[in-house]
Request: fold
Amino acid sequence: MKFGDIVVALGIIAIVIIIIIPIPNGLLSVLLSINIALSLLILLISMYSKDVLEISIFPSLLLIATIFRLSLNISTTRGILKDGDAGKVVETFGKFVIQGDPVVGFIIFLIIVIIQFVVITKGAERVAEVSARFTLDAMPGKQMAIDADLNSGLITEEEARKRRNDIQRYADFYGAMDGATKFVKGDAIAGIIITIINVVAGLVIGVISKGMPLGEALQKYTLLTVGDGLVSQIPALLISTATGLVVTRAASESNLGQDLIKQLFGNNPMLLYIIAGLMVLLGIFTPLPSFTYIFLGLIFTFLGYSMGKGIEEEIVESVEEISEAEELRRPENVLGLLKVDDIELEFGYGLIPLADINQGGDLLDRIVMIRRQIAMELGLVVPIVRLRDNIQLNPNEYIIKIKGVQVAKGEVFFDHYLAMNPGTGEGQIEGIETIEPAFGLPAKWITENEREKAEIFGYTVVDPPSVIATHLTEVIKEKAYELIGRQDVKLLIDNVKEEYPAVVEEVVPKVLSIGEVQKVLSNLLREQISIRDMVTILETLADYGNITRDTDLLTEYVRQRLAGYITNKYVENSELNVITLDSEVEEAIMNSISKTETGAYLSLEPNTAQRILNNTLKSVQRLTSIGEQPIILTAPIVRLYFKRLTEQLTRDLIVLSYNEIEPSVEVQSVGMVSI
Reply:
């Protein structure tokens, strides 16, 4: 605990103690003066703050200031009623305001209280209530706007987190202010009650207990009561004003003083000249004081001249900014063009409504869900998806780019639906023949009128945004290994480090570099293995990183440690039908592994490789024809190299090793690849 924290805690405790324990008049005068200074400080802070979040402590500050003022009220009341003396400050305030007339002094005090209670406090309370209500109602829309900006690439993840945090803080602040204004209102009511008690009780004590004449008692106790009331109510008035300023401030880049000067006097100097002319005319041609009005006219003339000069300077600055913008347009300034976005989605002008929130488009929201889905399935934080319209594309066409390179394209019709026959559909529907872009299935684009008919026939019907979202999801999954970079790995490691620092410290950078960890993770994502369980991955790398730094071999060790996940991913009902490799195939692959300083690779004889691929294709087609998912099971040492060999046929073929399957699974061989 810091020294400042201790001081604040002791100060709040001292406030409570003041209520209970009598304090000397000298110390009381000092505390009353501190109360006035504190109120002035709060007022000035509220004036010079540009944003309410700069004074987010304001509601708590109101409570502390109110309790402090009331505790002083109790102490002064104790001194007035007991000793007829509440210190020099109270007496001075009373004499200065009363000026020998208790009735006038009391009336002035009541006017101050009424102004505070009826005008300022009441208005601030209402404004705070409305601000809290509208702030809370606007939160969902602001959150959606942040998500939209994030997905369109206008802001970064860090900026999005900051804006979401600010929204929450605004809601908390205005909610707290709605309650805190009740403190100020209650304080004003308490001030009136305390004043009445002091006057009545003072007269009773003075006349009955101390035997004072009625006039003398009235003079004495009214003076002290008014002085006490002023000492407490003036700070209360200042804080009420500060509360009103805080809750009525709109969003601005300047403080209150700058906004007042700029908005009242800085927009149109001609208005000031008109006011100056009217002041002079009133001073010359009416019985009003000539000197005063002519002097005011000269002041407004000077203000108009000064503000006119300021506007000219702003125009010059804006011209300079335009010149700077033109400078940026020169061919030499091309650094901004060198940045390549990780993921881009470009579409023709006919598909713009899908991404336009104002036209009911929800593509941005779908992209948010895609990023969450990928994070859950693969453990990958998908980079920002940059959305762009491209007039060079056909109106209904879209393309997907990864790191600036086009990897996929498709075509959708904005006012149509995509109908696909899952194999169980019956009947014919009218539509435009097409190929579903994500999985390459035959489909038809149908109108709204045909939609109900297609659903009755058993067709799967999806809307255009779903088509694009599904296609984008599959592309991201396929290219996930390309999207994960060293910076992304560092973020993942830092996230793990918050809860498991020992694991991270053992691996990075003592055993492996971030680049080597990135290669392992990329290898896993290449075969659609989730990296969400980063703790297990890092622990495996810590176990085997001292034995080998071959990232391919380390990947195999990690896969074996993730056997539970892999089994759950591919096995149903504890049974697994697989294609195995003949011992001759495995032996041929093992004998063809060449190792170099940079890693190992397969150098299989071309004819042998072709025979293996042909036999693999036949076995895969045999399983596919009966509706089975083809999975090839190999020895651990062979798995990686056979997988790379089969990538010449297809990247989607699943190749597992014996060590990646849980012992409880019943493995059934339904085919064999031979030479």
Remarks:
- The chain has 24 helices and 14 strands.
- The chain has a mean pLDDT of 83.
- The CA atoms of residues 570 and 576 lie 8 Å apart.
- Residues 574-675 form a domain with the Rossmann fold fold (CATH 3.40.50.12790).
